[in-house]
Design brief:
By secondary structure, the chain is of the alpha/beta class. It has one domain: Rossmann fold, CATH 3.40.50. The chain is 57% helix and 13% strand. The chain has 10 helices and 5 strands; from the N terminus they run βαβααααβαβαααβα. The radius of gyration is 18 Å and the shape is globular.
């Protein structure tokens, strides 16, 4: 099974590319979704409570990701807090992703899987991948998209600073998809790479 990682900056269009590949028959390994699932584990919630208290929990004892995010992405002290959270969650997310990959290989239902993970390089999950794609968009375009999502420029900058640099992601990727145009243009470029996947497979 060919495993392809999707890299890029915040709001570059990584998930849109993943969706195109899913429509073509790929399985999407969604690290964000796995991360949300990890936060429901009792041992994870216990560790989070020890570090940040009841402030980051809802009344139903679930983790309030918005309040936790405000702490770990705080412009002043967030880097330290984020590293603490990642030490708890990243090994478990990796474990879940590895389990998914093993299951996919054993079932032989999919010939191509796509890993969509914003912190792929930082967490070392690019090691799962046979090939890597970098989705490239201008800073202005990405900031505009993030603001449509309700982010401030400060939030955008803080979260991007917490990731591996775009230059590193770009240099380590096998393909580049430019995404400053329309969704149709992005899909056309993604499908051209999909055709290359088929030849590799």
């Amino acid at each position: 099974m060919l495993i392809v990682g999707i890299a890029g900056g915040i709001a570059s269009g990584k998930s849109m590319v993943s969706t195109v590949f899913k429509e073509q028959g790929a399985f999407v390994l969604d690290a964000d979704q796995v991360g949300h699932q990890v936060l429901t584990r009792s041992e994870v919630r216990n560790q989070i409570r020890k570090l940040w208290g009841d402030l980051v929990f809802r009344d139903d004892d679930s983790v309030n990701r918005e309040k936790l995010g405000a702490i770990v992405f705080d412009p002043l002290n967030g880097a330290l807090e984020l590293s603490r959270l990642e030490r708890i969650t990243h090994p478990l997310i990796r474990e879940c992703l590895e389990d998914q990959v093993r299951k996919l290989i054993s079932e032989e239902e999919f010939s191509i899987a796509v890993l969509d993970a914003p912190v792929m390089f930082k967490a070392g999950w690019d090691g799962f991948c046979d090939r890597l794609i970098f989705v490239d968009s201008s800073l202005e375009t990405r900031q505009s998209r993030a603001m449509v999502r309700g982010w401030t420029i400060s939030e955008f900058e803080t979260r991007e600073a917490a990731q591996v640099s775009l230059d590193v992601k770009r240099s380590r990727s096998d393909w580049l998809i430019q995404n400053d145009g329309t969704p149709a243009e992005l899909k056309e470029r993604a499908l051209a790479i999909w055709d290359e996947f088929i030849s590799l497979d």
